[in-house]
Amino acid sequence: MLRVAETEVFQVRWSERILDEASRNIKADRPDLEPAAIDRTFEDMRRSFDDAMVADYESLEPAMGNAAEDRHVLAAAMVGRADVIVTENLHHFPKSALEPYGLDVQHPDMFLCNQWELDEESMVEAIRLWLEDLSSPPLSLEQLLQKLELHTPQFCQMVRQSALGQQG
Length: 168
What we know:
- A two-stranded parallel sheet has the order 1-2.
- The protein is built from ten helices and two strands, in the order ααααβαβααααα.
- The chain is globular and about 45 Å long.
- The model has no long low-confidence stretch (mean pLDDT 93).
- By secondary structure, it is mostly helical.
- The longest helix has 14 residues, at 16-29.
- α6 packs parallel to α9 and α8 (141-148) packs antiparallel against α9.
- The protein has two domains: 10-106, no CATH class; 111-167, no CATH class.
């Protein structure tokens, strides 16, 4: 997702609390990864997307109608003027909680498919740049898609069916 955001197809928004929670979850779910490397990745994200940080949303949290543990996400989305919350935790963001604020929630797979349909050329460029950056070890397009497929199977299928997939 961040590779695509680098091409400015869309803008990311997050808060320190969102980043801290994501870092904790990755460390818990992936004990095979070095915690210091995860910390460096999140620092790189902060530096690379310096305009993504949302603050001063906390006072809105109590009014949010979604799952209590994710009210901070909805409040940050509102302050950050987001259109979509991208998460695998769709059930924490019911339509009834989002509609008053004009927000939508999408699974990462659906979000990437929608971005592909909106701007296939930029999405192809993002994937090409990503493949160029992968040098340790280098990956083919198919190898990259196999890694992404667990979380974004429909998106990977779209890429395979495109001209890019036929080249890879």
